[in-house]
Amino acid sequence: MTAKRLGKGIGAIIPEFPQGNVESVHTVNEVNIDQINTNPHQPRKEFNVDAMSDLVKSIAKNGIIQPITIRVADNGFELIAGERRLRASKQAGLSTIPAYVLPITSDVEMMELALIENVQREDLNPIEESQAYQVLYDTFDLSHEEISVRVGKKRSTITNAMRLLNLPDLIIKDLREARLFPGHARPLLNLETEKQQLNLWRRIKDEGLSVRQVEQIVKNIKSPPDAKQIPVKKNKSVFIKSAEDKLMHLVGTKVKLKGTEKKGNIEIAYYSQDDLNRLLDIFDTIKGNLSE
What we know:
The protein is an alpha/beta fold. 49% of the residues lie in helices and 12% in strands. The protein has 3 domains: 3-151, Alpha-Beta Complex (Conserved hypothetical protein from pyrococcus furiosus pfu- 392566-001, ParB domain), CATH 3.90.1530.30; 167-225, no CATH class; 238-282, no CATH class. It is built from 13 helices and 7 strands. The longest helix has 19 residues, at 273-291.
């Protein structure tokens, strides 16, 4: 079996089934539920109680619409994909379940198929998907590049997904329970300490920050603006403030003094040509009074 075919999903890898107790892998077989063992590397770990209850009722009334996928094992069969349907069928009291039997002998191929099926059906939360990639990496010695080829995703997607597992447990729990989006969580990985990650995580929840806002906050934490470039606003002395007030009262417009009591500049604002002419008249009057 080639990686290229794996990357296209289960539908691309169903060949003719070898001679045995079923006609072909395309045939839906009724299999005794008690003969099916669960997949020890099942990517999906979370099963919503309410959703499972609804599925049990549906199966009890309508039966199984979508067959599960299994493989032949030493002690019967082993589940590849469809654990929710298998669990619900047991709860509904069914003794058999419709299933496709795939000619899979390799554990890594079974893990790949289970992951592909769940990812394509969007049945996994971000942490389940990350953990599944981690199993392929740790247990089956696949590189990030090999995983990306086999599941049909970019290498960067695989790497970024696996990195989520490095976040604090509280953040991972929120990702698992869909209270936090991966887009909000990924920037947190760039922070150096767990305390920084948790502090920003709380801000995301309390303030409803957007992904862009989170990215900017992380950027500012990592590379704070140069303090030298930030102008320091100095409090004006009582003398300067008093002088500004006197001049504003004299000329009837905004006046700003820059400097100290001994040396500086005076800025007088005007807002039109008429306003400027008014100021010039005031200065002429002052000049005349001084010359008398």
